[in-house]
Amino acid sequence: MRPILVRLHRWFGIAIALFLFIAGLTGAIIAWDHELDAALNPMFFYARTDGPALRPLELVRRVEAADPRLHVTYMPLGIEPGHTLQLFVRPGTDPHTKAPYTLDFNQLALDPATGEIQGRREWGAVSLARLNLIPFVYKLHYTLHLPFTHGIDTGTWLMGIVGIVWIFDSMIALVLSFPNLKAWRKSFAFRVKRGGYPLTFDLHRSGGVWIWGLLLMMAVTSVSMNLGKEVVRPIVSLLSPLGSTPFDDPTLVGTPQPGKADLTREQILEAARKIASDRHISAPPGALFYVPALHTYGVGFFAAGKDHGDGPLGNAWLYLNAQTGQPVAASIPGQGSAGDIFMQAQFPLHSGRIAGLAGRIAVSGLGLVVAVLSVTGLMIWLKKLEARRRQTRAAQIMPDDALTDAPPSERAKRAESVEHIASPQ
C-alpha cells in the first residue's frame, strides 16, 4: 500500500505544485490587499478635500446623471473619514445600438465632499501598472486570469480542482510522514546542521507535518471559495440543512412583473432597515449592491471601512426583491444551521480575518510556507528522478550477469564505476 501512496503523492504534488506556488505567494500578498493598494495608490483611496461628505446616495445620483453610459452596481453606505467613496459600475445599454456601452473601467473613486472623480480603473485587469497591481494579484490568486470558455469560468474551476487534489494529497502526506510509531520523532525534526538535501527533505516533510491542520484548512476553504456552490454546499447539505441566497438558488427571486419599475435605492434601503430591526441586526447599513440578472438588491450591515468581512463570521447581508422590496434571503453571522455557520466561516478562515490581525499575519506566513513546500517538493522529485536515471545507466553499464567470468580486479573496477554513476551527489 505504501508504494502506491508514494506514487500518488509524487504525481499529485507535481500536478499542483506550480498552482500552489502561485496561490501561496499571491495569498501572502492579498492578506494585506487593502493596505497595499492604498499605499500604492493614495489618490484612489484618500480624498483630496477635507470638507463634510455628501450622502453616498446623492453622490451616486450625481455620477449616474453625469455619465448616462454607466450604472452603479455596488456602493458603500458609509465613508471613512478622509477616504474616497469607491463604487463599482457596469455599462448601460446604448438606446441606438441596443448594445452595452463600452467602458474601460468598472471602479470609480470619488471625493465625498465634492463628488469629483479622483480615479477610474478596471478592477482585475491584466496589468502590472501601479493602479491595477493589487487587483491583478488578487484575481490571479483564484482564477490565474484564465478566460471564460463556453460560459465556464475555467480559472475558477481549475483552482478549485487544485484545491480538491490538495485535500487528498494532504491526507496521503500525513500517512507517509508516520510510517510507524518509532519514526514519529523524525517527522517533526529538521536536520539543519546537515543542510543540503536532508534539510530540503525535512523542510518539505516536517514543515508540512507541523502545520498540517492549517494546510488542510486552507485546502478545504480554497475549494469553498472557488467551488462552493458546485461542490462544497452539496456535500455539506448531506450533513446539515442549508439556507440559500439568490446566488445559490435563483428561483428565490421569482419572476419580475412586466411593466413594473424597480424600487429606488432609497426605498430598498428603508425596507432593509426595517427587516434588520426585526432580525436584531445592530450594525448600520454599510453597502448596497444590485444584480440585474437576479433582479435582486443586497444590503450589508457593517461600520464604515469594515467591508472586508472582519470578525469571526463576516458581515450580515439581506437580499431583497428589486420590485417589491420583500426579503428573499439573508446571511446573518452565527444564525442558521450548523451547515450555514460552517459556510459562513469559510472566507474568514481562508483570509485569516476570523482571528483579526493575528489571523491575517498567520495566513500571510502560511502562504509563504505553501510556496516553500511546493518548491521543496519539486526539488525532492528532481533529486530522486536523477538518482533513478543514474541507476538505469548503471544497470546498462553492468548487467547482472555481465561480469560473471571477469577476474576480481575487473569486477571491482566496474563496480566502483557503477557506484559513482548511481549515487546522487
UniProtKB/TrEMBL annotation:
Region: Disordered, residue numbers: 396-425
Superkingdom of origin organism: Bacteria
Bias type Basic and acidic residues, positions: 408-419
UniProtKB keywords: Membrane, Transmembrane, Transmembrane helix
Pfam families: PepSY_TM
Residue stretches in coiled coil: none
InterPro entries to which the protein is assigned, alphabetical: PepSY-ass_TM
Transmembrane segments: 12-32, 157-178, 361-382
Name of the protein in its database record: PepSY domain-containing protein
Annotated organism of origin: Paraburkholderia solisilvae
